[in-house]
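Thread: Newbie trying to understand structure tokens

Hi all, I'm a second-year student working on a class project, and my supervisor (Dr. K.) asked me to get a predicted structure for one chain before our next meeting. I've only ever worked with sequences, so writing a 3D structure as a token string is new to me. If someone could post the tokens and maybe explain what I'm looking at, I'd be very grateful. Here's the chain:
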Amino acid sequence: MQGLISKMTVLAAMVVATPVFATAGAGDIEKGKAIYMNGKGDVPACNSCHGQEGMGDDAMGTPRLAGQSFTYIAKQLADFAQDKRMDTVMYVMNTNAKGLSEQDQKDVSAYVESLDYDSINPSDMNQVKELGNPVGVRYLGKGIVMYGALERGIPACHSCHSFNGRGAPPMYPMIGGQKYVYLVNQLKQFRDGTRANDAAGQMRVVAKQMTDEDIYNAATFLTSAPRTTIGNSGWPENKIHH
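---
Reply by user tm_fold:
Sure, no problem. This is what the structure looks like when written as tokens:
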């Protein structure tokens, strides 16, 4: 088990040392807002799938984008454009990303990062069930997020994605407050290799150790995970999402 932890640490160090991330200053928020709200050319408005506030939609399987870090969104758009990541949810992101210039992608990423980060807008689990999705047990998911299941090779989500999955840019995205259906889909795709654009293959290593129940439990907790604790409602001065 110590070997798994050491391997994850080495992989993290490799990615941090690799200059693959752009800077938020490279994007124009107002231009990004225009694309997000109205589209550009043949590319439809992002809000048609991700919502006006960027909070995502369980019925469509789309993720929350609001407050996600510039670096993460910029990388995903670039990966979609280069077919390094394939959209198996709406089947439009590869085409849409190709229709945006590199600067357009940066502008959209800057706008997305500027959207509300603090608010938690968890999935409506009753709706999730009505849509036919199995759901997990929240307290069991909290255990995985905070402590992992090392006896089965599952490290704590907290160790990379920060407290309750609130994100650790530039490498690790915000997963706390994310939509349930999207979280489940992505974990399963990492597990079966359908999605393979994770940094140094870290998520594929982790997800391969997770059962369906582990995935449902973790996603059930993460979608409503608070960003702060009762004893500390403050934020780090550097604002974790920047």
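A couple of things are worth pointing out once you decode it. The two ends are 32 Å apart (CA to CA). Residues 165 and 190 are 17 Å apart (CA to CA). Feel free to ask follow-ups in this thread.
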